[in-house]
């Protein structure tokens, strides 16, 4: 019968619609449709990332009060900027209570100075071997460089903690404010400090840690080495 083939074909298509049977070509996506889908997915990902970035951070676990800070030995680079002028050096830092020693070296390995504190107070040794002493590191740093540096708190902030019992504020971006300083810290996947940045409006200090581990000395010193010279 003329046209019956077309009727049967149309009937088959109609049956597919009635019974929900997909057309053989239904699974194939046209180039236009595929392009639209890609743009839709990309837009959705961007919106999701933007929304996540705008969510307030949970700072409950940041900057917990200091308790016992374990001994450590660290090396890295130091940058100090004050009044538009910058200085750069390397450092090696040993924290082994009751003694803490920070050596400041030139990029070529020459000694610029040493700062140490113990139970008897703080002292500094310059590159010529001259020794300067004070009751605390803040007073000592003010004598030497004209600024009070929060050296006695650095090991606490480097650990990602705040000084217990002292006023503080944690900003929404995770920055700690304490003793007139803003303190930012980054760490690796294991929680070890990688950078520590401090700013008090006049002075900007940035420490980049390249190595951190346990002190090589097995015996804990009781006094700064410079006191016994």
Automatic annotation (TrEMBL):
It is a lipid-anchor. One of its GO terms (biological process) is lipoprotein localization to outer membrane. It comes from the Bacteria. Coiled coil: none annotated. Keywords: Cell outer membrane, Chaperone, Lipoprotein, Membrane, Palmitate, Protein transport, Signal, Transport. InterPro entries: LolA/LolB/LppX, OM_lipoprot_LolB. It is found in: Cell outer membrane. Pfam families: LolB (PF03550). One of its GO terms (cellular component) is cell outer membrane. Plays a critical role in the incorporation of lipoproteins in the outer membrane after they are released by the LolA protein. HAMAP family: LolB. Monomer. Belongs to the LolB family. This is Outer-membrane lipoprotein LolB.
């Amino acid at each position: 019968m003329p046209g019956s083939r077309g009727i049967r074909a149309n009937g088959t298509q109609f049956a597919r619609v009635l019974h929900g049977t997909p057309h053989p070509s239904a699974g194939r996506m046209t180039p236009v449709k595929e392009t639209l889908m890609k743009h839709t997915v990309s837009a959705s990902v961007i919106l999701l990332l933007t929304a996540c970035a705008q969510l307030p951070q949970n700072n409950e676990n940041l900057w917990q009060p200091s308790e016992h800070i374990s001994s450590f030995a660290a090396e890295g680079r130091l940058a100090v900027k004050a009044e538009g002028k910058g200085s750069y050096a390397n450092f090696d830092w040993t924290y082994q209570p009751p003694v803490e020693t920070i050596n400041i070296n030139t990029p070529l390995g020459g000694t610029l100075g040493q700062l140490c504190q113990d139970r008897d107070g703080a002292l500094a040794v310059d590159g010529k071997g001259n020794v300067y002493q004070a009751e605390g590191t803040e007073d000592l740093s003010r004598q030497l460089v004209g600024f009070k540096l929060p050296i006695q708190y650095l090991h606490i902030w480097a650990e990602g903690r705040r000084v217990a019992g002292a006023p503080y504020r944690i900003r929404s971006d995770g920055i700690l404010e304490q003793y007139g300083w803003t303190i930012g810290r980054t760490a690796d996947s294991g929680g070890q400090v990688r950078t520590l940045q401090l700013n008090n409006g006049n002075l900007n200090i940035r420490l980049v840690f390249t190595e951190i581990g346990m002190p090589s000395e097995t015996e804990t010193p009781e006094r700064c080495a410079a006191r016994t010279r």
